[in-house]
Amino acid sequence: MRGFCDRTAVAGVGYTAFSRNSWVSTLTLACEAVLAALDDAGLTPDDVDGIATHRVGDSAAPSVVGPALGIDAPAWYLDQFGGGSVSHAVIGQAALAVAAGVAETVVCYRAVNARSEFRMGGTGRGVPVSPEVQYQAPYGYTAPPQQYAMYARAHMLKYGTKAEHFGQLAVTQRANAVKNPRALMRAPITLDDYLASRWIAEPFRLLDCCLETDGACAVVVTTAERARDLRRPPVLISAAAWGGGDSFLSGREPADPTVTSAAELAPRLYAMAGAGPEDVDVAELYDCFTYSVIVQLEDYGFCAKGEGGPFVASGATAPGGALPVNTHGGFLSEGYVHGVNHIAEAVSQLRGDAGDRQVPGAEVALSTAQPGYILPATSALILRRG
Amino acid sequence: MIKPVPDRDSAEWWERAARHEFVVQACGTCGTLRFPARAYCARCRGREWHWREVAPAGRVVSWIVNHQPFLPDAPTPYTVVMVRLTDAPACVMVGNWHGPAEPVADQPVTVSYTYVDERLSLINWEPA
Question: ipTM of the predicted structure?
C-alpha cells in the first residue's frame, strides 16, 4: 500500500521562541508560528486553503486562528483532539487532504503555554474525557511521568534495561541541544548529573522527563509539484500512518506493557514509504521521557526487542552513530511542542540547513508521535529529501 | 484524594466495590472477562453480560514510587502498583501499595480495601 507516497511535501516550518512563560496567548503564539512557516515557504496567508491543529482544550482553535490571519473560508480544516499521540496524524491528514485535491496548501500548528498556563502533569486532571481516569486518579496516578515510569520499570524488569541507559540518552540529547540556538537547556550534563537528579516517580528522575514549554511550531503542507516552485527545498512526505492499538485498560487482550502501538503501526508506515529502518538516516522520536525513545527504537525496528537500552549505550543514537536521534535535543532539552518541533527538525535535517547539528547527507528521516501508552494511538511520518 | 467520577457504565462497579464485592464483567455470549465496565464485548461484540465475582488476587506487573507532589494533599512518597488479576489475566488494575517493603516483580498480591465512606471503597493491594 503506497498510499499517497511522495505526492505531498513540507514546504516550510516556523517557530516561536521557546520559553517558560510566553506572556502572550496561544492565539498569538499560533499566529506567529504560522506566519513564520509561511514566510519560510515564501507564502502568505492568502495562499492558504487549509488549517489544522491538535489540542486538548488547551489552545486556540483553527476556527479562531484562521480568521485572525484573514484565512476566512478554508476549503479544509481539522481540529484534532489529542496531545502527543496525534501530532504526526495531523500532518498525515493534511497530506491526505492535499493528495485528494480537497486543499492545496495547508498550515498545521501546535501552540501551547504548557508551562505558564496549562501544565500536562501538574494538575491531577489526567487525560481529559478518558474513562480510565476514574480508576487511576484516586490512587494518585494522574501524571504522564508516573504512567511512563510504570511501563519503564516493566521494561527494566523484563529486559534488564538500566538507569544508565536512560541517562546516556539524556546526556546525548543534551549534547545535541548545546548546538541548537533554539534549545531551552544548553548546559552540558554528565551521567553523574543524571543519576544525581531528584526522583520524580521511581524509576524516573528529573532528567528522564521532558521540559514543559510555552511555544508554537507550524508546518506547511502542499503538493510535491507546488513545493518545488517555492522558496525552500521541498521535503517529501513519503509515508504517514496513524492508528490505534491496545490500551492497557481497554479490557481486550492481555497486553505486554513493554510493547507500544508503534509496533503495530511501523509495518504500515514502512510499506507506504517503500523503505525500512535500514534506510533511515536520522530519527526524531517522541521523547516525553527517556524510556519513550528506547522502546520506539525497538518497536520501529532499529534494534531487537529489549535491546533499546544497550543500543543507546553503544553510542548508536549520538551524532556520527548508526542512527542519530533527536538531533535538536528533543523535548528533553530543546522544548516541548507536542511533536511538531520534531517534524520541523526532521525537515531541517533533510534540507541540510541544521547548522552544527547537521547529519551529513541525510536523505530519509523518521519522526514519531507519543507511542501510545497513555492513549492507545500513535502516528509517524517518513520524510525524504525532495 | 481525588474521588472517582463514575460514568454510566461504571457506576454499579463502584457500588459493588463499596460493598467489597470484587467483580469484573463476563460476556454472556463468549465468556470473555473484561474491565473496565462497558456495554459491548470487544471480542464478539455481544451486548449480554453479567458481573462475575473473581478472586481479589493478582500478580505485580510493575510499580512506581512517586516523589513529585503532583497532587497537593497526597503525602509523598507513595507507591502505585499495577496488578494483573489471577482469575482474569486480560484485566489490569492500578492501586496503592500497602506492603511493608517495596513490591517485587510477579509478587502474588491480594486486595486491601480502603474505606472512604459508605459509597466508596478504594481497591488497594498488599502481599498475598
Answer: 0.95
